[in-house]
Amino acid sequence: MSYFNAMLVEKNDEGKTNASIQQVSKADLPEGEVTVSVEYSTVNYKDGLCIGPGGGLVRTYPHVPGIDFAGTVEESSDDRYKPGDKVVLTGWRVGENRWGGYAQKARVPADFLVPLPEGLNTRQAMAVGTAGLTSMLSVMALEDHGLKRGDGPVLVTGAAGGVGSVAVALLSKLGHEVAAVTGRADQADYLTSLGATEIIPRDELSETSRKPLEAERWAGCVDAVAGAMLGRVLKQMKYGTSVAAIGLAGGAAIDGALITPFILRGVNLLGIDSVMQPFTNRQRAWARIAQDLPMDRLESMIQPATLSDLPKLGADILKGQVKGRVVVDVNA
């Protein structure tokens, strides 16, 4: 019987969870057409929840978290994939309601996978991960709704986080002026190195405004915060522009929001989901990532880690203390 290392989260009779590295049998993997030898994973906010108390995402224990992974096909009963193929997985509730990528092997339905595009290796794919895919989907949505180079500055909120970091690098590479919002003054040099042309202190946008509209400033926005910040940003968007909403670090409500930006300036609020995104759009986004994301800037975002680092990293990301992109070498 084949065994491999995995980070297993267990729950005791008192409801407390504990995460540890254990040997797991290949026979214990969930059903699926494709078995993957995992090479790298990463750390997202959902991973922090699943490593810890679960956040309502995990239903069955013991559990292997990890909502993203990249690796090599080991076995496949689906004609779309064969042994040796490089693949990437993000979303589909893998790592939540079924075992995920914090292990040396994973088994999933073939529909969940995307072939790794030419120009990306598995380590780079996990430096991108769900966060980077969401960033690319956001940029594509803004472009599909009219954003063009030269329209003016594009705002990125929560810019030092995983989604924000990749969004800054992508938008800059595509020739946009990028204004990066952060509450951490010590991240200014980091964001500038990714291509930000302006650093906006979080306090400047975090207070609720009751004004129906403010001066037009932004040609587009990738927003990871919501709350009062999104309420302010909507009132500062230029006529006919769009905000791609991808997160709710500042709360699920849009504080101070009014209908005026939508009916007087034609502003669009675009919801971006990466979990259940159809295959065709995933493939399009990964191809754009391979083409448009500057790999030198991607490398500068990477924080390397191993399976044994995950319990601490999971706690850190829930506190907003993880910068850039964590890349987990599951075989180290």
User: What is the count of structural domains?
Assistant: 2
CATH class descriptor name of the largest domain = Alpha Beta
Helix/sheet category: alpha/beta
- Looking at the structure, what is the overall shape? globular
According to DSSP, the number of beta strands is: 15
Quickly give the CATH architecture of the largest domain: Alpha-Beta Complex
Briefly note the CATH topology name of the largest domain: Quinone Oxidoreductase, Chain A, domain 1
Q: Give a quick account of the main beta sheet: strands, pairing sense, barrel closure.
A: 7 strands, mixed
Order of helices and strands: EEEHEEEEHEHEHEEHEHEHHEHE
* Arithmetic mean pLDDT: 95
Percent range for β-strand residues: 15-25%
CATH superfamily of the largest domain: Medium-chain alcohol dehydrogenases, catalytic domain
- How many helices? The count is 9
- Terminus-to-terminus distance: 22 Å
Helix content: 25-40%
The parts where pLDDT drops under 50 for at least 5 residues are: none
| Rg result | 20 Å
